[in-house]
Specification:
Rossmann fold, two-stranded antiparallel ribbon, about 15% strand
């Protein structure tokens, strides 16, 4: 581990050390974050380089939050951050050092949106690809755990923290060939719901948002870039779009401190369940 990386890991755990280096990966905009006025409300959005994450970052910025955007595609993050007046920091939620570096440079956090996640593959358990399963669990479950655990002290210290975790309707059901994704989303959702009790009495609210079919890069990633196969997922329906979910996040974030919206399930009108749709043709 490089010296600068070690410095950030120490600082993130409350141990003494000099400030993170501006040359450390993920800390290019350290000065911008640290120079924010003390009363600036800060919202952190993971998986913010596209889709629901990007739309959420734009929505929260419009509500007056300084948004810290985290994802692996830093060039894309920087373009969005420049448009909304936010801060782009490289983040890989599957890598503990990356998470530690990201979280260490944040002076305060009022809102955390756990949005990083995704699916890979669609296969029966008998043919399960362990690499795909490992990626889904690392991203959806352990990624949510890493970031949430690291930022909880700052969320509590804010006096009115909010954790929004974007799960899925897949967290409530099971379907053929989808065990890798549904099991990961079940686990992510249980992690989030457990915090509701563990943080009772602390100044932190928790909301789980479980979307149905949202037309983003989700299916493109799931099917390894097969655009034709991804398009068929939304064929004949009017799916949700990223902004639909972002508006809900914004609504949750605008509630007064005593109001906790525990769980919000949102699906297109054309969708009854994970595999049950009303599709039109022609």
């Amino acid at each position: 581990m490089a010296p600068d990386d070690m410095t950030i890991k120490l600082a993130s755990r409350g141990q003494p050390g000099p400030p993170p280096s501006r040359t450390t990966p993920g800390c290019r905009h350290y000065d911008r974050v640290m120079s924010l006025p003390l009363d600036t409300r800060v919202a952190v959005v993971t998986g913010a380089s596209s889709g629901i994450g990007e739309a959420t970052a734009r929505t929260l910025a419009g509500q007056g939050f300084h948004v810290v955007l985290g994802a692996r595609r830093l060039d894309r993050l920087e373009a969005i951050a420049a448009e909304i007046g936010g801060t782009a920091l490289e983040l890989d939620v599957t890598d503990e050092d990356s998470v530690d570096a990201f979280c260490a440079v944040l002076p305060r956090v009022d809102v955390l949106v756990n949005n990083a996640g995704g699916a890979k593959g669609l296969a029966p358990v008998m043919d399960a690809d362990l690499d795909d399963w490992r990626w889904m669990w690392e991203t959806n479950v352990l990624g949510t755990l890493r970031v949430t655990k690291a930022l909880l002290p700052k969320l509590i210290a804010s006096g009115d923290g909010l954790i929004v975790t974007v799960t899925s309707v897949a967290a409530f059901t099971a379907y053929d060939n989808g065990a890798g994704y549904t099991s990961a989303k079940h686990a992510q959702a249980v992690l989030h719901r457990t915090l509701r009790g563990e943080l009772l009495g602390k100044p932190v609210r928790l909301t789980e948002i479980a979307p149905g079919a949202v037309e983003t890069e989700f299916s493109l990633v799931r099917f390894d870039g097969d655009a034709e196969r991804a398009a068929k997922v939304y064929e004949g329906i009017t799916p949700l779009i990223a902004e639909d979910i972002a508006e809900i996040v914004g609504f949750v974030a605008s509630r007064p401190p005593h109001v906790n919206l525990d769980q919000i399930i949102v699906k297109p009108r054309d969708q009854a369940d994970t595999g049950r749709f009303h599709r039109t043709t022609g």
